[in-house]
Amino acid sequence: MRGGGRGCSMEYTVERFSAACAGVTISYTAEDVADAFERAAKAIGKGMNLPGYRLGKIPTKVIKSRFASRVAADATELLADAGLIGILQKEGIRRISPMQYKGEPAVDGKPVEVKTSFDVLPDIELPDLQQLSVVVGDPQPSEDALNAMLDQALGRLARLVDVKDRKPEDNDLLTVDVRGSVDGMPLAGMTADGFRMKLIPAVPGAKVPEMDPIVRALSIGEEGDGTMVCPDNYPDPTMRGRTVDLHVKLLRIQREELPPLTDETAKQLGFETFDALKGEVWKQTFTARMRQIQREAKHALMVEQLAKLDFALPEGMVQHFYREHQRDAERYMKKQHADADTIVRTLQNMQDESMEFARKKAKGHTFLLALAEREGIRVTPEEAEAAVRSMAGNSGQAYEDIRKTVWENGVITAMQERMIADRALERLYAAARKVMADKVQLRPYSEVGAKKD
Fold first, then answer.
1. pLDDT tens readout for residues 329-358
2. Which residue range is the domain that position 356 belongs to?
3. Disulfide engineering: 3 pairs with which of 13, 14, 114, 193, CB 3.0-4.6 Å?
């Protein structure tokens, strides 16, 4: 698709390269380019300190001479940005990725054609939200979940007692050194010094952790060997399912002594009575269960909808998620103290899996952005700014530093898109009728909520 238009001295053409990619070429006169260079030089010189000039008073011709490549790059970016939002609005194009500039930087005082490309929303056959339904679990917390949460609360006042006269037993806290290897080569993530683990009582029919029989046979200071199967979520797919040789040394056994279930214990935890503590535990357990139900239901809704759809994926978005998957794996391997060769080899082995992950995530993200577009879901600049403040607060970094990084690196666009996608998923879930796993009648969520209130 091509289009054209004129605004002041600016002319442009729009081209649709594919169902999910478009581009805009904007023609600028020599005067437009000279003005952009002047503005770029002034912005660079603002606050700059050079010998022989007052702070912020450096002539633009000096800035252009001393920082020529930077001025040219910034001026070209100004030209690429100028008018683009208006063009996209006029042409009805929804850009969903940062703009990519194609071509050489502009030259001061010479006309130029600025060519850009970007991902766009493809046409997607979106569902009628009123026709959706999803099966949800029973929100009533199980007795085991309540007891576990109560133990967790009491654990804040627990006393750890060293045990030295026996081998490990159920619920003991152990400290061990572990060495995992495959064919004699150390396996990153399977080696740790001072690793802490708790022996969980065996559940009938459940798989026993591979290290359990090794450590249960040891006394403090003893070493033992065993094997385990490399798990399916291990980063390197070539290692999954292979036999890992384990060498374990037991360093310490501790027993957790919980305080008595009394009002005095509750008061130490900030509650008037033990019944008040149990009430709060029930509330937190119920809330956690509801969050789990919602996560599972949202996932089920997305799987169901995406299975019905086949549409072009924005390749820029796919590449973004591919790099994200690779970076996450690299960070994990570095935390496990993997050497550089192991990291490179693992990332190479993961390429197909990373691409599969990226395409799957891009499909879900694109679907939600398209749904948000249809439903009129937006994120205001004020809401994005609040998210940046929250990010600064959670990270402990200075707000102005975070804000500068987010805006200058274009991260704010990705943040807004994630917020929009999250809201679209909430809309999808809220609109779907909820049916309990053991019920047959579907009820609107509004009715369920009203009865709970």
1. 999 999 888 888 999 999 999 999 999 999
2. 274-452
3. 14
Domain count along the chain: 3
Last residue within a domain, chosen from 198, 225, 257: 257
Q: Is pLDDT of 9 > 60?
A: no
Looking at the structure, tell me whether residues 310 and 199 fall in a common domain.
Answer: no
Tokens standing for residue 340: 């550089």
Q: How is 79-123 classified by DSSP, letter by letter? A: HHHTTHHHHHHHHT--B-S--EEESPPP-TTS-EEEEEEEEBPPP
Kindly state the average pLDDT of the residues 198-211.
86
CA distance 413 to 183: 47
**Residue 79, Cβ density class (10 Å: 0-12 exposed, 13-18 middle, ≥19 buried):** buried
For residue 102, give the 3-state DSSP assignment. strand
Whether residue 166 sits in one domain with residue 39: no
Q: 240: domain CATH number?
A: 3.10.50.40
Q: Are 177 and 249 in contact (CB under 8 A)?
A: yes
| Dist. CA 196–CA 175, nearest whole Å | 5
Mean pLDDT over the full length of the chain? 87
Kindly state whether residues 107 and 189 are assigned to the same domain. no
Strand partners, 182: 185
**Measured between alpha carbons, how far is residue 226 from residues 203, 248, 249 in Å?**
21, 8, 12
**Higher per-residue pLDDT: 159 or 49:** 159
Chain center to CA of 171: 34
Residue 132's nearest CA partner among 370, 424, 442, 368 is 442
Q: Please report the DSSP string for 65-84 in residue order.
A: HHTHHHHHHHHHHHHHHTTH
- Short-list 101, 115, 97, CA closest to 21: 97
Angle of helix 315-335 versus helix 351-375 axis, rounded to 10: 130
Angle ∠(121,123,128) on CA atoms, nearest 5? 110
For 432, the token pair is 């779907």
Summarised one tens digit per residue, pLDDT across range 442-451 is 444 445 444 4
Domain identity same for 313 and 427? yes
Rounded Cα distance between 327 and 322, Å, is 9
87 with 175, same domain? Answer: no
Strands 243-257 and 100-102: unpaired
* Amino acid symbol at 226: G
Residue 41 — φ and ψ, nearest 5°?
-65, -40
262 contacts 274 by C-beta, under 8 angstroms = yes
